[in-house]
Write a structure and sequence with these properties.
Helix content is about 30%, strand content about 25%. With about 550 residues, it is α+β, with helices and mostly antiparallel strands. Strands 13, 14, 15, 18, 19, 20 and 21 form a 7-stranded mixed β-sheet that branches. Strand 2 and strand 3 (about 85) form a beta hairpin.
Length: about 550
């Protein structure tokens, strides 16, 4: 009897559920006010990434930027055109001397774990970043805040429940840019701190952003869901699934087969794939304005490459036009200088290294590297002219460029060996200066020129090590610092001009093309746009229309 009664209750429950569902559909179908359920309320986006999320601690640099941007927010937001608008700060005031910033914080924000966001929570985050200042030395703002503290002042002070004051020892014009980029100045719930700080890790991933990380299955997939208590306008896409697909062709097939909806990023989509999807039914493509410079960097401490004539010979043996047209189908235009003239302070008169094999051969002759009968490659003192180009095997384009470049340098008698490795090993090699030539990019908008050049002053990536063979290295570093702290626009331009001119004339960087961010996606995905930073994927702006 009990068993029958339970089954009877189940049947009754199913009937009632059916009646309610039918009624709900009828109401939705008849509604003209939009009050019923919409597809957007249950919409899901499936995004392909080439690796796992890794460590999403926003105060460190090992996590995927697109994920950190979904979860964590900053005081200010950098708009697509490079301006600033309020985010977690409603407003701010800057002192006349440019050393003090007073931020009025929003009063309606909580972290997704329920912790209140206020000046105390903001200060705790800044304190945690400064507690690990050695890790953030590429940020001049961190050094300037440290100097305030070391002189007995307070670089970070709570001046009201929702008022935070930040102080620098000197004026620093890129400060708002550094506050607005994805890391490290974004806020994580103080409940996630370990022993009062974040430098040794965090106990959970909790921000104030429009999404929360719901699941992470390492090297398989992750799930992000809308933060239901989000203080701002909630995204239309309620769930994002991120599938880890390392192989480029597998990603492309997954998009074609409907297993994923979106592939996004300069190194996730080669030109051939982009062009294919341009004319493929059921799919759309989007491309940004030029955002950064794709380049290679030469190690000036190398026994062979320490000679500027050899470096200049390599510059003249670089066929940028063919790289642009054949490898990138014209999507990325040839780059003559390390920063495009459209980058602030980079519109200066520099003579491009033209593609001229005769000039390249002449420079190698002058450097003592001679052609030897019966030998494929040039020789000097019985030694073969051989160098190594390292590339990231996770990039869909670097191997292609490397193979082309190998054949090009052979035309002037240079043996170029190419070596690919996974991204972390590749970046570790760069930072250690363990390379002859390696791929590099400028940091792009909104980081160029200030952050890109500031990073040259210390071993952040490969720039610092690559420049150690230059006799002007100390002056380059000093001049970069002057540019960052100058309040005089004319002087600042002079400083940037010196640095960019010196690096160009010393042929340290081999500019290839000006990169453009790109996306390919199922046509049901709408409003696919680009942020100022190429490293962010603005999925919070997208929507699904079946």
């Amino acid at each position: 009897m009990i068993f029958k009664r339970k089954n009877s209750q189940k049947r009754l429950g199913k009937k009632l559920l059916s009646i309610l569902l039918i009624g709900s559909m009828l109401l939705t179908g008849c509604s003209t006010s939009g009050g019923g359920s919409s597809s957007a309320e249950t919409s899901k986006l499936v995004y392909a990434n080439f690796r796992d999320l890794r460590d999403l601690n926003p105060h460190l640099y090992n996590g995927e930027l697109f994920a950190q941007n979904l979860i964590f927010e900053s005081l200010v937001k950098i708009t697509e055109d490079g301006d600033f608008e309020p985010w977690l700060a409603e407003s701010w005031k800057i002192s006349e001397d440019g050393k003090e910033y007073v931020f009025k914080l929003r009063e309606d924000v909580t972290f997704s774990d329920g912790e209140k966001f206020n000046a105390e929570a903001a200060k705790a985050n800044f304190d945690a970043i400064l507690d690990n200042a050695d890790r953030h030395t590429w940020l001049e703002s961190v050094r300037l805040m440290q100097e305030v503290d070391n002189s007995g002042g307070k670089s970070v002070e709570v001046t009201g429940e929702y008022e935070l004051t930040l102080r620098l020892s000197e004026a620093y014009y890129p400060f708002l840019v550094e506050l607005g980029v994805t890391r490290p100045f974004r806020f994580i719930s103080p409940k996630c701190f370990i022993d009062g700080t974040t430098k040794n890790g965090v106990s959970d991933i909790v921000g104030t952003g429009s999404y929360v990380l719901s699941e992470n299955h390492v090297d398989e997939y992750s799930i992000f869901k809308v933060n239901e208590d989000y203080w701002g306008e909630k995204p239309e896409i309620k769930e994002i699934e991120v599938k880890v697909i390392p192989d480029n062709q597998t990603r492309v097939m997954a998009l074609k087969n409907g297993e994923v909806d979106l592939i996004y990023g300069t190194n996730m989509i080669d030109a051939e794939t982009y062009k294919e999807f341009e004319s493929l039914d059921g799919f759309k493509t989007s491309i940004s304005d030029p955002i950064s410079t794709r380049m290679m960097i030469i190690n000036t401490t190398d026994e062979i490459l320490g000679d500027v004539k050899v470096r200049k010979a390599i510059q003249h043996a670089t066929d940028r036009k063919t790289i642009s047209e054949s490898i990138f189908s014209g999507i990325e235009s040839p780059a003559d200088t390390v920063l495009a003239k459209t980058v602030p302070y980079a519109d200066i008169d520099l003579k491009a290294y033209d593609y001229n094999l005769d000039t390249a051969k002449k420079l190698l002759d002058e450097a003592g590297w001679k052609e030897v009968k019966g030998k494929t490659y040039r020789q000097k003192d019985g030694k073969e002219l051989s160098i190594v180009l390292n590339y990231c095997s996770d990039s869909v384009t670097e191997k292609t460029i490397a193979e082309f470049y190998q054949s090009e340098l052979a035309k002037v008698g240079i043996k170029l060996e190419i070596s690919g490795e996974e991204e972390q090993a590749y970046r570790d090699r760069m930072k250690a200066g363990d390379f002859d030539i390696t791929f590099n990019i400028s940091w792009g908008s909104p980081y160029d020129p200030q952050s890109f050049l500031a990073g040259m002053r210390m071993p952040v990536y490969g720039d610092y090590a690559a420049q150690q063979g230059l006799k002007e290295k100390a002056q380059i570093d000093e001049t970069i610092l002057k540019a960052l702290t100058s309040t005089d626009e004319e002087k600042r331009q002079e400083y940037y001009t010196y640095v960019l001119t010196t690096l160009h004339e010393e042929a340290v960087y081999i500019p290839l093309t000006y990169e453009r961010n790109r996306a390919v996606y199922n046509e049901k995905v709408k409003n696919v746009t680009f942020n100022a930073s190429q490293f962010e994927v603005p999925m919070e702006k997208m929507k699904i229309e079946e």
